[in-house]
Amino acid sequence: MKEKKHKSIFRLLIKNSFLIISYAIIILLVISMLSPLISPHKFWFPAFTGLTFPYIFIATIIVFVLILLRKYKKHLFIFLPFVLFGIYIFYNYYHPGFFNSKNPKSGTIKIMSFNVRLFDLYNWKNNQPNRNKIFQLLNRENPGILCFQEYYYQKDGGFPTTDTLVKFLTANNIHTSYPVINKGDYFFGIATLTEFPIVNKGEIIFSGTSNMSIYTDILLWGDTVRIYNNHLESIRFGYEDYRFINQLDLNVDSSEVKDTKNIIRRIKRAFVKRAKQADAVATHIAACPYPVIVCGDFNDTPVSYAYRTIGSGLKDAYCEAGKGIGSTYNGKIPLLRIDFILHSPIYKAYNFKVIKEDLSDHFPITCLLGKVEK
Fold first, then answer.
1. Which of 159, 231, 338, 372 sits in a 20 to 30 Å window from 305, CA-based?
2. How far apart, in whole angstroms, are the C-alpha atoms of residue 235 and residue 274?
3. 226 half-sphere exposure, CB direction, 13 A CA radius
């Protein structure tokens, strides 16, 4: 009797396996959409679903189409609201750009944010040619405000960066901060360059990490404006982690389970640290008496606690003026938009671009910024 009951339950599960999987995907979609509201410091799992939102959403679209073809009408109407809201969120990753504004009549300033990965310092055979390619890009774009993350400066002149940049850029007023200094000559940190006068500088220090934020007050169009340059906590995968991810297949053994656990621990730790860092930056922005421009490598996506916390009350230049896929991570994981230019509502963004040149593990991003026309 019990055996028949177990068989009937098993058959029922097999018969409804498609719907079970479909509703499991919807549950993950809902958790991912709610993840920006939940601090990973309190509960980290929703943050992981937020990181994978584009893939969960694509899976939801596939399921929705299959339900449509199979004519599960009552399930179709249950799924429809989630699909529509998911499309709205997906505009943070892919923007059609149909209604982007044309350049304003009044003046604009070009903003750039770029994680330069130390100008490819550790690529020993090719670091100087690659550094020079970065210089050529910067010379061509010539931004008025330039925010670097993973910036490197060598005091002994063996790998000139700062000395070279200030010679050819119009943005030659520089604010740097170096949380890591090696042997008194090798400086690792973050830098903001601007063509406008700098009137004040400061730092937001994150304890227990080399990541940080700096803020730079400049005189722009007769007003004081504060630029925030952020480099939030990264996952810090080692070589073995990347090798494991690249070689991952379906034949899982005990060593791979151990590697997977190690990767999950790193991801969890990064989420928790970023949450605290985002809180610190957001608190600082909230107390700022000036309009702000917020740039940087957040190491997190638009569906995240870090992005929502820092971006509260601000405009996203990509959502205003971007077109096409907005991913900024130059790696094997597609659809990761982790670099941002945000700004106070008194400004408007135009002509946002992701420059798809293979110079770093991040693509540089630029936009034009002007005052809102009244």
1. 372
2. 10
3. 20
Taking the C-alpha atoms of residue 254 and residue 273, their distance in angstroms, rounded to an integer, is 29
pLDDT digits (tens, 9 = 90+) for 4-62: 455 455 555 555 788 889 999 999 999 999 999 999 989 999 999 999 999 999 999 99
- Strand intervals (E) in 85-196: 94-95, 108-115, 145-154, 173-182, 186-194
Whether 307 and 300 have beta carbons less than 8 Å apart is answered as yes
Look over the chain and give the mean of its residue pLDDT values, rounded to a whole number.
88
Contacts of 263 (CB under 8 A, 6+ apart): 237, 241, 244, 245
CA distance 178 to 184: 11
Instruction: Name residue 199's beta-bridge partners.
Output: none
Task: Find out whether 319 and 170 touch, Cβ atoms under 8 Å.
Answer: no
Q: Which tokens sit at 274? A: 């970023």
CB burial of 353-371 (b: ≥16 within 10 Å; e: otherwise) equals: bbeeeebbebbbbbbbbbb
Whole-angstrom distance, CA of residue 364 vs CA of residue 259: 32
Tell me which H or E stretch contains 243. helix 239-247
Instruction: Give the pLDDT confidence of 62-98 residue by residue, as tens digits.
Output: 999 988 887 777 888 889 999 999 999 999 999 998 8
Q: How far apart are CA 48 and CA 44, in angstroms?
A: 7
Measured between alpha carbons, how far is 213 from 190 in angstroms, rounded to an integer? 8
Which amino acid makes up residue 282? Answer: A
Token output for 103: 């350049």
pLDDT exceeds cutoff 80 at 105: no
Q: Which amino acid is at 38?
A: I
